[in-house]
Amino acid sequence: MLCRKMIVTVCFAVACLFHAGLSFAEPVRILMVETMPVPAVLEHERAFVEGLEHLGYGVGKDVAIDTIKGQGDSERIKTGLAEYLSRHKPDIVVSFATLASVAAHEALDGTDIPLVFCVVSDPVGAGLIKEVGKPTGTNVTGLVFSLMHRAKMDLAKSLLTQPFPGRPVRVGVVHSDYPAAVAEVNAMSAIADEDGRIRFESHKVKFRPIPEGLESMLAEASEGIAALSSEVDYWWIVPGPLGETAEFSRLLLDTTVPVGLCHTENCCKGGGLLFIGPENGKGGRQVASMVDRILTGTAPGNIPPVPPDSFDMGINLTTAIELNIVIPSQYLELAGEHVWR
């Protein structure tokens, strides 16, 4: 259960566990640490709790789910963790997004408490793990919140370059200095530089906690949009709290430059060409399965941190037609019901 009444709050939901023939004499205590209430985080949290229930962890008797809410402030998250860990020893910690995951990783250093992270685009760059897809041998594992960069670039490149044969495509990226956003820009720029068919032009704004700091970030983002508009062929929205917001997507969609790659489904529905992203619901349930494995005896260091099992893909056909971009049939098949006009 989630409690959203305090900036940093610890809330308790008592639950029952009779799973795989096991019962617990003592309540199992799961601590959820939330970076901020953006859609991807909230959807992962909801699906995580639902996933536990689906696995047989009933709400009401033998499992306590506690939540620390950081409102995008790393110091608040650290303080909340310190206060909580001084009073309780959770059986497992589940962190949502980069700031919460980094703070939890630091707070749990030297303990035997398992950490499962999610909604983290670059866990290697954040210092949580050394490599995606390999067992960590530590008390940390989790779910990477990103399609592999090269696969995403290949999909985008096959569409965005069509109207501009013979010259590099100029892509504008306005983003905050939130770690996930910076890591994504760096990774995608490095891949793009390999053949030069796409060139990134970026403008970085200072990250501020959401929702309180959103207005200030949008004001700075507007300046970046104005500065880049005449220099780019498309906008490219990267992961991170700013890219999650409908307000930021609308700023870009309202310009004369098309949004080539969206970070949310609603952005693509609203006129962006392409959306590629994790399925938040399935991601939350996948995290629940990881937690279940740990609670039933598997060492977290033996569970490889991996990307989600599946991704959503969306295409706006009206935008594609306006841009003279031909969508391959296999892309339409991948998008399935997520094809909009």
Mean pLDDT: 90
- Tally the beta strands: 15
- CATH architecture designation of the largest domain: 3-Layer(aba) Sandwich
Query: How would you name the CATH homologous superfamily of the largest domain?
Result: Response regulator
Helix content class: 25-40%
Q: Which residues form runs of ≥5 with pLDDT under 50?
A: 1-22
Q: What is the H/E order?
A: EEEHEEHEHEEHEHEHEHHEHEHEHHE
Number of domains: 2
Indicate the structural class. Answer: alpha/beta
The CATH class name of the largest domain reads Alpha Beta
Overall geometric form: globular
Nearest-angstrom radius of gyration? 21 Å
Q: Give the percentage of residues in beta strands.
A: 15-25%
Largest sheet: 8 strands, mixed
CATH third-tier fold name of the largest domain: Rossmann fold
N-to-C terminal Cα separation, in Å? Answer: 38 Å
Please report the number of helical segments: 12
What would your notes on this structure say?
Mean pLDDT is 90; it is low at 1-22. The chain has 341 residues and is of the alpha/beta class. It has 2 domains: 11-145 and 280-302, Rossmann fold (3-Layer(aba) Sandwich), CATH 3.40.50.2300; 149-278 and 311-340, Response regulator (Rossmann fold, 3-Layer(aba) Sandwich), CATH 3.40.50.2300. 37% of the residues lie in helices and 23% in strands.
